[in-house]
Structures are given as structure tokens and as C-alpha cells.
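Issue 218. Parser rejects a valid record. Input:
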Amino acid sequence: NLNNFPFLKMPELDDTIRIVTAGRLTKTKGFDRLIRACSEVKKSGVKIKLSILGIGDLKNELIELANDL
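Output the parser choked on:
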């Protein structure tokens, strides 16, 4: 029943691509490839924002990679 949920105003849209993903921060998930791909897209002039939600052994390594790129 939609009457149980309040109406939320749609946020203003801009030209930024927003990617949100979640998962274990492990090698098999490929977050390092996603970070590199987003970096390449950004280099081409596209506004992009990546948010990764998760915990795991590669957390610090992925943060460092994102900061380096």
C-alpha cells in the first residue's frame, strides 16, 4: 500500500554518473577493475562518482588504489 510511504521529492539531476555497489572486498569481486574503469571514464571527461560498500581484506588496498588514480 503506497499510502504507508511518504512522497519524497526527486533530487535534482546533474550530469554525474553515480555508481553504487556492495560486496565483500575480496579479489574475486573485481572492485579493483571497477575502480580502474571509473578512473578511465573520468579521464575522458565524464563526471563519475563511485561508492563501494563493504568490508574485507582488500579495503586498504582499494582505498589506496582509488587515491592513486
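Fixed in the parser; the record now loads. The longest strand covers residues 17-22.
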